From TrEMBL:
<feature type="domain" description="Aminoacyl-transfer RNA synthetases class-II family profile">
    <location>
        <begin position="38"/>
        <end position="341"/>
    </location>
</feature>
<keyword id="KW-0547">Nucleotide-binding</keyword>
<dbReference type="InterPro" id="IPR023716">
    <property type="entry name" value="Prolyl-tRNA_ligase_IIa_type2"/>
</dbReference>
<dbReference type="InterPro" id="IPR006195">
    <property type="entry name" value="aa-tRNA-synth_II"/>
</dbReference>
<dbReference type="InterPro" id="IPR044140">
    <property type="entry name" value="ProRS_anticodon_short"/>
</dbReference>
<comment type="subunit">
    <text>Homodimer.</text>
</comment>
<keyword id="KW-0030">Aminoacyl-tRNA synthetase</keyword>
<keyword id="KW-0436">Ligase</keyword>
<dbReference type="InterPro" id="IPR050062">
    <property type="entry name" value="Pro-tRNA_synthetase"/>
</dbReference>
<dbReference type="GO" id="GO:0005524">
    <property type="term" value="F:ATP binding"/>
</dbReference>
<dbReference type="InterPro" id="IPR033730">
    <property type="entry name" value="ProRS_core_prok"/>
</dbReference>
<dbReference type="GO" id="GO:0006433">
    <property type="term" value="P:prolyl-tRNA aminoacylation"/>
</dbReference>
<dbReference type="InterPro" id="IPR002314">
    <property type="entry name" value="aa-tRNA-synt_IIb"/>
</dbReference>
<dbReference type="GO" id="GO:0005829">
    <property type="term" value="C:cytosol"/>
</dbReference>
<comment type="function">
    <text>Catalyzes the attachment of proline to tRNA(Pro) in a two-step reaction: proline is first activated by ATP to form Pro-AMP and then transferred to the acceptor end of tRNA(Pro).</text>
</comment>
<comment type="similarity">
    <text>Belongs to the class-II aminoacyl-tRNA synthetase family. ProS type 2 subfamily.</text>
</comment>
<dbReference type="Pfam" id="PF03129">
    <property type="entry name" value="HGTP_anticodon"/>
</dbReference>
Length: 439
């Protein structure tokens, strides 16, 4: 992308309404625009980031054997009356009446709808296990939308639902989700710690929330500091292996880690004092096992091997896809702007032309632009007639993992400068070696 052709409405001033750094940087770098309280447009660069996050979520869910699909945003009220949640959900639910006077709602989550789909089409235990998921916009009329996309009213969420014959099978699905979520967050450069949590309106007391530690997080958390050293890393995972998924769950949940809803001082004191931490975190996901809470009232049953009709065991699993854009920035920025982890970066390399209009630098920038594009490295070329200082500021704000600076002095010596956004380290490199270095 060439900056002169792009739509990147950067702001020079800090927007007054933004209280936290991710909100400020998303507005300043032209990623989002607020349209109403808690409702945002995703401008081209923000949209690219959102799609990169979404793609990682898809890849990891498909790898775990879960099937992507798409349910609508608008749901009929009847399904929620069947489960009994229509009244329970209260004012967070946006209720709509259509022209025929039918009660509809903008879905805050999809347990009821997926259960309806399941009961319409699945009758036998032979079709289990089954996990379906989608990534779709949700609406929750939050009392206090704030912090930009972190607590929106309209937000983008991955929600998945497992259907299993037995509790043991459903617990394997739970563990499988835990592992796939850990992989998902690590690919985004995040450490999200699974913490024992509370069920809330989804129900069930078997649940973990995934929290990214950050001072601006809305949740208060208590944990054993040694948990910060555990990583999934590049280990080989067999999602069919009950033992492996279970052992990863055990590994990640052995140490104390709880949100304030489930925190118990009496248990926490068993952790040596030097490791006890009280901190704040951003909830980027949650997994639940809730047994037959929905399948029983909604009649989602299958025939088992003995010919009995039995309600299926279910769980649901959510990732805050749009919230993650903010959470990643909270976890990765400096005073000059965003520092994108490679996989979510909207552009992997920025090309900065120090002397626009100079035949030498223009020619080299064009050449690098074309080579990097061919190599799939998605360059962002700042080809504006601007002072170098302004270009550096924009590049730092936008936060590409790498920057190539092309100036007349370097070219005289046959080199360009390659800078790592995160470490700030620069090296001179021959332009012909750039692509192989970055690939
Ligand atoms: N208002 C929101 N704006 C952005 N993301 C959200 C919002 N509410 C929930 N999410 C994201 O969706 C994920 C799954 O939804 P879940 O039903 O667990 O949310 P929740 O527990 O009600 O969230 P919270 O406690 O933050 O209100 C959450 O872990 C979070 O990352
Ligand atoms: Mg939650």
């Amino acid at each position: 992308m060439r900056l002169t052709r792009y739509f990147l409405p950067v702001l020079k001033e800090n927007p007054a309404e933004a209280q936290i750094v991710s909100h400020r940087l998303m507005l300043r770098s032209g990623m989002i625009k607020q349209q109403a309280a808690g409702i945002y447009s995703w401008l081209p660069m923000g949209f690219k980031v959102l799609k990169n996050i979404e793609n990682i979520v898809h890849e990891e869910q498909i790898r775990a054997g879960h099937h992507p699909m798409l349910m609508p945003t608008i749901q009929p009220a009847e399904l929620w009356q069947e489960s009994g949640r229509y009244n329970d959900y209260g004012r967070e639910m946006l209720r709509i009446e259509d022209r025929h006077g039918r009660d509809m709602l903008f879905g805050p989550t999809n347990e009821e709808m997926i259960t309806d789909i399941f009961r319409s089409h699945v009758n036998s235990y032979k079709d289990l296990p089954l996990t379906l998921y989608h990534i779709q916009w949700k609406f929750r009329d939050e009392v206090r939308p704030r912090f930009g996309v972190m607590r929106g009213r309209e937000f983008y969420m991955k929600d998945g639902y497992n259907f299993d014959l037995t509790e043991a099978d459903a617990l394997h699905a739970y563990n499988r989700h835990l592992v796939s979520y850990l992989r998902t967050y690590e690919r985004m450069g995040l450490q999200a710690i699974p913490m024992k949590a509370e069920g809330g309106p989804v129900g069930g007391d078997h649940t973990h929330e995934f929290l990214v530690l950050a001072e601006t997080g809305e949740s208060e958390v208590f944990y054993d500091a040694r948990i910060e050293d555990i990583r999934l890393g590049a280990r080989e995972i067999d999602y069919g292996s009950v033992a492996q998924c279970r052992s990863i769950l055990d590994e990640f949940t052995a140490l104390y880690a709880r949100t304030d809803d489930t925190h118990e001082d009496a248990i926490f004191v068993e952790t040596p004092e030097e490791f006890r931490r009280k901190a704040r975190g951003i909830e980027v996901g949650q997994i639940f096992y809730f047994g037959t809470k929905y399948s029983e009232p909604m009649g989602a049953t299958v025939q088992d091997a003995e010919g009995n009709q039995v309600p299926v065991h279910m769980g649901s699993h959510g990732i805050g896809v749009s919230r993650l854009a903010g959470a990643i920035i909270e976890a990765s920025h400096d005073e000059n702007g965003i520092i994108w982890p490679f996989e979510v970066a909207p552009f992997k390399v920025g090309i900065l032309n120090m002397k626009q209009g100079d035949a030498g630098t223009d020619g080299m920038c064009e050449q690098l632009y074309s080579e990097l594009t061919k190599a799939g490295l998605e360059p962002l070329y700042d080809d504006r007639e601007e002072r170098a200082g302004a270009k550096f500021a924009t590049m730092d704000l936008v936060g590409c993992p790498w920057r190539v600076t092309v100036g007349p002095r370097g070219l005289k010596n046959g080199v360009v400068e390659l800078t790592n956004r995160k470490t700030g380290e620069s090296e001179e490199i021959k332009p012909e070696l750039l692509v192989s270095k970055l690939s």
